[in-house]
């Protein structure tokens, strides 16, 4: 759900205080835990370290991000991959084919050098 227009966007006051009157080029990474804070036009150019529960992910704010939340650009879950036994078998076959291709290229490359 979106925030009511009469209330306006949610901007964390501490975060706005940190960037107030500062130059984005001179300021380093600004660490923040305010994932729910919306990105305002004043934030464009700054680099924020948005906390994802474990570490701070660096987010460089661009014009396209205005109106979004800071938390959208710092994922909290690490995607490993899909699959189980079948995926492992497919990966093993792919590795074996790469090794075979490398050996074939090595053997043909060696013959060309001898000639």
Largest sheet: 3 strands, mixed
CATH class category name of the largest domain:
Alpha Beta
Whole-number mean pLDDT: 88
- Spell out the CATH superfamily of the largest domain: Ribosomal protein S19/S15
Number of domains: 2
**CATH topology name of the largest domain:** 30s Ribosomal Protein S19, Chain A
β-strand percent reads 5-15%
Shape: elongated
Round the Cα radius of gyration to an integer and report it. 25 Å
Helix content: 25-40%
Secondary structural class = alpha+beta
* N/C terminus separation: 72 Å
Query: Could you state the order of secondary-structure elements as H and E?
Result: HEEEH
Strand order of the largest sheet: 1-2-3
Residue runs with pLDDT of under 50 for 5 or more positions: none
By DSSP, the count of extended strands is 3
Number of helices: 2
Summary, kept brief:
The chain has 115 residues and is of the alpha+beta class. Helix content is 32%, strand content 12%.
Write the layout of secondary structure elements.
Blueprint: H1 13-19, E1 29-32, E2 47-51, E3 56-60, H2 85-114
Summary keywords:
12% strand, 30s Ribosomal Protein S19, Chain A, 3-stranded mixed beta sheet, alpha+beta, 115 residues, elongated, 2 helices, 2 domains
Description:
The protein folds into 2 domains: 13-73, Ribosomal protein S19/S15 (30s Ribosomal Protein S19, Chain A, 2-Layer Sandwich); 82-115. It has helices at residues 13-19, 85-114; strands spanning 29-32, 47-51, 56-60. A 3-stranded mixed sheet has the order 1-2-3, with helices on one face. It is an alpha+beta fold and 115 residues long. A hairpin with a 4-residue loop joins β2 (47-51) and β3.
């Amino acid at each position: 759900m979106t925030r009511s227009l009469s209330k306006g966007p949610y901007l964390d006051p501490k975060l706005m205080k940190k960037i107030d009157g500062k130059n984005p080029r001179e300021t380093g990474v600004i660490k923040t835990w305010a994932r729910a804070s919306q990105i305002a036009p004043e934030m464009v150019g700054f680099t924020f370290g948005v906390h994802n529960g474990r570490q701070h992910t660096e987010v460089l704010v661009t014009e396209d991000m205005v109106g979004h939340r800071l938390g959208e650009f710092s994922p909290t879950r690490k995607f490993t991959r899909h699959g189980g036994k079948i995926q492992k078998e497919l990966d093993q076959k792919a590795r074996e084919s790469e090794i075979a291709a490398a050996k074939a290229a090595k053997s043909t490359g060696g013959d060309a050098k001898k000639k």
